[in-house]
Write a structure and sequence with these properties.
heterodimer, A: mainly alpha, about 75% helix, B: mainly alpha, two-stranded antiparallel sheet
């Protein structure tokens, strides 16, 4: 088991190197001179030249690339071109905020999604089932950025119930709109998967037995159906968390949430290679860690699965 | 054994036609396609500016609210939003099909090679998909369009680039399941070459999941294009795009909620219908779903 975890973590090193290589190549084809951007639009050419030498932009690309890799290998993210602050410090500041947002969204969608899925499955083909499935299909079809905009209009502009954007103290009024927007599509997906998983288990013989010996319907659902339907549900929560992290940049930019997604977006706009690179690495590592945790959870839920 | 593989590969089109929701989806998509194709004959010129208008003897300034004249209202220059949306729909449909087509072709080809050829080739392609899948999709697509310069072609390339790894993995999985079947061995023993085996024997038998993946991937392509255009990394004016119309309307949400509202609704409708068709396809291809169907009946 520990061997398995170590192996999975080691597998990630070549992926990270590939990631850095692709990003480095892309950003060096990108038009725009980082030294000029750092110096500002009205800078003296001498100043630009000084910055270029200071930052090492005048070195051959291969040297810059290897230097970059070596720095990363030592855990050195470098300084942001834009703010000149150490990126590690920025990351420690922005990542927890993204984590808060993603966690709030996933918990919301897990609770509501599973609950709706259970209702739909137990009232199969009734009006509640049809309504829930229709809402789920609709939620999966909203473009995220548009949904964010519409919820802003309704809840912040017209109803004035919630702040339209910004960051407060973490889990407060400011998190409700962005977290809810992120949760809506996931919620639809989870409701669907839960319903399908439940229906599959409900056809098994042991459920008929439980029903035949006169157990109450709620007890059957809670004790016999849900635990056995848990594997696809947990998998979906895991893959969905990954999907949710993909939507994070869009949501953070629209809601001015100072997390890693907005940080990466700003870095991209400013052609800030070290900052963008660090955000992509952190996001990619979080995604693969989530995947690893999900795989381990399988074994926990279903003892028949074993990793060696 | 051969029969069960066949069941994977072939569609029960009759059952697909009997399901209501997928057929509604097909109908609406056809309608939207027709609207987009015949746009110049149906809607007014989307670039026509109208800066003042007389209403009940009073002069009003744009944006005008929805009326029978302007179904979806107008923007800040008095341009008809319905006309802009119909032209934007063209872009969305083109991007959706083109991107998914490109990524399917690339992904299927690499998946076939990866599943069929020696271990080393497989390893290289799979590590490549690992790298691509580790990227945050929207950030990678934004970076690529920033490098290539925004525009219709570059958006399609960028989105195809981020979408192929999923397809490659799916197809590889199918190939691994099929390549040891007796009929593949039989074809090999009568002297069929690798490529003939792949294209004539393996590929046709994994068409089911490929068709489903094709349809399930279109909504993502359409939404990512709109998202990229929304953030200014995608399609640039004068080419109309639903994403950039919504982006333009963002500044007018308090005075003209219809401006960003209607384009998004149309986008949602399109994506919803493609999803409905995809769900219908899954229902008729997946044996797992069919088993669930039987179970459901036995539970009653």
């Amino acid at each position: 088991m520990i061997g398995y975890v170590v192996r999975r973590l080691l597998q990630f090193i070549p992926i990270l190197i590939g990631l850095v290589t692709v990003l480095f190549a892309l950003l060096n084809i990108l038009p725009g001179d980082p030294a000029r951007m750092m110096a500002g639009p009205f800078a003296n050419p001498d100043v630009v030249e000084t910055i270029r030498q200071e930052m090492g932009f005048d070195r051959p690309l291969l040297v810059q690339y290897l230097d970059n890799l070596w720095n990363l290998a030592r855990g050195e993210f470098g300084r942001s071109y834009q703010s000149r602050r150490p990126i590690l410090k920025d990351m420690l500041e922005v990542f927890p905020k993204t984590f808060q947002l993603a966690l709030a969204a996933e918990i919301t969608s897990a609770f509501i999604g599973i609950w709706l899925g259970v209702i739909a499955a137990t009232r199969r083909n009734g009006w509640a089932d049809r309504l829930i499935m229709a809402v789920a299909a609709l939620n999966l079809s909203f473009p995220l950025f548009w949904l964010a905009l519409m919820l802003q209009i309704v809840f912040a502009v017209f109803l004035r119930m919630l702040p339209p954007s910004g960051y407060g103290a973490g889990f407060d009024r400011f998190i409700i709109l962005p977290a809810f927007t992120l949760a809506l599509p996931s919620l639809g997906l989870l409701a669907r998967i839960t319903r399908a998983a439940l229906l599959e288990v409900m056809g098994e013989d042991y459920i008929r037995t439980a029903r035949a010996k006169g157990l109450k319907a709620t007890l059957i659902t809670r004790r016999h159906i849900l635990p056995n339907a848990l594997i696809p549900i947990v998998t979906t929560i895991g893959t969905d968390f990954v999907r949710l992290l993909g939507g994070i940049p869009i949501i953070e930019v629209i809601f001015s949430w100072p997390g890693i997604g907005k940080y990466a977006y700003d870095a991209l706009v400013f052609r800030d290679l070290p900052a963008l690179q660090a955000s992509v690495i952190i996001l990619a590592v979080s995604v693969s860690l989530v995947n690893l945790v999900v795989d381990l959870l399988y074994a926990f839920i279903n003892p028949r699965i074993r990793y060696v | 054994m051969r029969l069960s593989i066949r069941a994977f590969a072939t569609f029960d089109w009759r059952r697909f036609g009997q399901a209501h929701l997928p057929m509604v989806g097909v109908g609406v998509i056809l309608f939207l396609m027709l609207l987009a194709a015949l746009a110049p004959f149906i809607v007014s010129d989307p670039t026509q500016i109208e800066m003042r208008r007389e209403v009940n003897g009073e002069t009003v300034m744009p944006p005008y609210p929805p009326s029978q004249h302007n179904l979806f209202g107008t923007d800040q220059l008095g341009r008809d939003i319905f006309a802009r949306v119909v032209y934007g729909l063209r872009t969305s449909l083109i991007v959706g099909i083109l991107v998914r087509g490109l990524s399917m072709v690339a992904g299927t080809l690499l998946g076939l090679i990866s599943g069929f050829f020696p271990r080393i080739v497989d390893d290289i392609i799979m590590r490549l998909t690992d790298i691509m899948l580790a990227f945050p999709v929207i950030l990678l697509a934004m970076t690529v369009t920033a490098v290539l310069g925004p525009g219709l072609v570059t958006v399609c390339l960028a989105l195809a680039l981020v979408a192929w790894p999923d397809v490659a993995r799916l197809v590889r999985g199918q190939v691994l399941a099929i390549k040891d079947q007796t009929y593949v061995e039989a074809a090999r023993s009568v002297g069929a070459g690798n490529w003939r085996l792949l294209l004539r024997h393996v590929l046709p038998n994994c068409m089911g999941p490929i068709i489903v993946a094709f349809s399930m991937g279109i909504p993502g392509a359409i939404m990512y294009e709109a998202g990229l255009s929304f953030f200014g990394f995608g399609i640039q004016p004068p080419t109309p795009s639903l994403g950039s119309i919504i982006s333009d309307g963002r500044g007018y949400i308090t005075v003209a909620p219809w401006y960003p509202g209607f384009p998004g609704l149309v986008l949602t409708l399109l994506v919803l219908c493609v999803n409905l068709v995809g769900d219908g396809l899954i229902d008729v291809t997946s044996p797992r779903a069919a088993r669930g169907e039987r179970n459901r009946r036995s539970a009653d």
